[in-house]
What does this fold into?
Amino acid sequence: MLIVAFAVMIPPTPGISRRALAADDDRPLGWSYSPSLFTQRIPIIGLAFVGLFVSRYLAAYQLGHIDGLWEPFFGPGETPAGNGSEAVVTSWVSKGFPIADAGLGAFAYALDILAGAIGDRRRWRTMPWMVLLFGLLVIPPGVVSVGFIIIQPPLIGALCTLCIVQAAVTVVLIPYSVDEVLASCQYLWRAKQAGEPFWRTFWCGGPALSEDQTPTPDLDGRYRQWRGTSSPAV
It folds into this structure.
């Protein structure tokens, strides 16, 4: 995570075209707000951290680093495990993965954190590939998590409180990410209609297509103002 953070997350983000960065316009055509605001993404990052720590805890049990799991509600059912959480994470469903599935979930949440933090409030048009990748990291895993909870009682015979927490976190992430994905898809379509090369726009971003150049107030506003007004002492 630190390698990715220091390589691509610290401004200026590499790979973005100068035309994409030339305008401050951060609202898609017909929208009243920017879907890439940091105030939109902070809940995603915070919830992803919750999912990361829960997944790391479950993976620690699967890998034998701890002796048991906390489970306040569900018993082991007909399984020989100590409780419902231990029964689920050691079930044949979990063992069907070549690696610890909870560890894979922790890796996915780490990617959610990184993908949610990278870029500024214009990234729906300056980094469409990242926004769509972020959507793929959030939306399909949310569906899979809900499906995994549904199959636990009939196939495993037990339920896992921490797994339900994970599924809830993933599902809550979806509405926070859908609008940004829609904005990027809309921008790619309109940029192509305006004659911009699709793949270059997809990978390197594109220019603003509207006349509204007033940036939306956001958490990075003070930082941008400080960079624009500060100058070295002579």
